Amino acid sequence: MWDNYQLLRAMANFMLVSSVLILLYTAGFWVTHAPLFPVRTIQIQGDMKRLTPEQLKFIAEHQLSGTFFTLDIDKTRAAFSKLPWVRDAQVRRRWPDTLDIQVEEHMPLARWGENGLINTHGERFDAASDQELPVFYGPAGAEKDMSIMYGHFKQDLSPIGLMPKELWLSSRRAWKVVLDNKVQVELGRNDINQRANRFAQYWKQELVTLPYRVEYVDMRYPNGFAVRMPDYRAAAVTANKH
Length: 242
Known about the structure:
Ubiquitin-like (UB roll), alpha/beta, 5 helices, three-stranded mixed beta sheet, Rossmann fold
């Protein structure tokens, strides 16, 4: 074997290449992990109305660790996403020592029953808010459908100056709306948008002109509607005497 010069040359080349690779790896590891490349600047951007600088500063100071090269981007993103009002956080490095963080806040659309909020993407999140918002009551998983339907109802009712205050969806997929004038509108399971449009027409042409307070309107009839008026009293029938 020791007389095989080609084999010896190949072994020598292999050992040389291996040594160079190990040296390069060691040097690269030292460079990326050495404190010579700290993250000196954190730039946080976004349209933030509810997030405070103190919250963001706390995350930056207590949750982020590592150098410019070793800082875990996914963990950094997750750390900012833990804040209640953060919907998404995009993180990227900018040479030589800056971390750019783009924060997207939740935009609240409605409350989800007694617990939680719904954002404009139809996603549920947990945060505290004193903002006056409509309330959704429905089965778990219906958040997006209810958000879409809420938008349709707003559009249907806008011409008559009314707004949905509460939106109900039963487990059987039956819809009910409580308006900002406290009128309850039963819409059922089928032809929801058509029934909402019919209600708007009837309200403008007939219901709003009634001399009694309207409490409840049932739009589930194919060619009409039923109305409950608590103040209405039928006229007494007087018998004729001869």
